[in-house]
Every structure is written in structure tokens, then in C-alpha cells.
Amino acid sequence: MPSREAPREADVDTGRLLVTPLGLSPGVVYSAVRLTRPTTLLVITSASAEAQLAAALEEAAAQPRTLVRLMADPHVGFREAAGLLDADVRAALEAADEVLVNITGGTTVMQYVVQRIAETAQSLGTPTRRFALVDRRAVEAQRAEPYVLGEIVWLDDREATDATG
What we know:
single chain, disordered N terminus
């Protein structure tokens, strides 16, 4: 499976790891990064959507270490999840002080994959929190101006101690 900028084990950063899908709406990554300020970013995306990642990070004024995992079939590739959880992803999950997982954005399959990554982080003993992003604007407005900060909604039992990072 294709990947970009995969860290060698010695290069894995500690700190906050953000896991997020990226579909054709780059505002999701923009808001997720702005609201959580990760040290490391793990993006689950497709080859066609990956092109928007650099612009979303530039708009967010963020430069986290970035790992990208490309899905071969972002619409029905549910069975790709296990392969995307490779040794480098597991090393990043283990090294992180905390893992924040955005379950919104991208396709249903991408959302499924990030949920599986959250489960893996939890099984490794890494503190993990899931969240959703909300943009209350009309879809047309979101498409026309994607880089407007959304709202974060924490989903797990314990509320974030510092929701903005």
C-alpha cells in the first residue's frame, strides 16, 4: 500500500497524534489540525484527495510530521484497514502521548479505518479520544470556502481537558 513520509522507528515523534480521514473536503483537515494542534498527523485518504492535503495544512499554518496512507478503493475498501495499520502506524500510535481521532470527513470506508486505528491505539494502551467536526454552513458554502473553522464535538466519556489543544 502506498504511503508518504513514513517515519523510521527512531524518528517517531511523541506528543499528540491526530488521525483523520481526508476526502474531497479539505476543510475537515484544516479544522481538525487547527483545533487540536498535533505533533504528528496521520491521514487516511485516496490518491485523488491527497492533492488537497498540502493546501489544507498551509491554510491551517501547521507543519506536523505527516504520515499518509492511501486507500486503493475509498468507497468499498473495508478490507484494506488491516494493511493500513502497518508497522510505522503502530509505532506512531505507541510513541504518542495521546491519539486524537477525527471520525468525520472522507468516505464511510475512511471513517471505518480511522475507527479501527482508534481501537488499535486503545489496545496498545495509548490514551485515545475521538471527536467529530461540525460545520453548520450549507454544503454550497462549505465547498466555496472550505477553510472556515468548524466546531469540535468530543465523543468519548471524558471531555477534553483542553479542547483547543
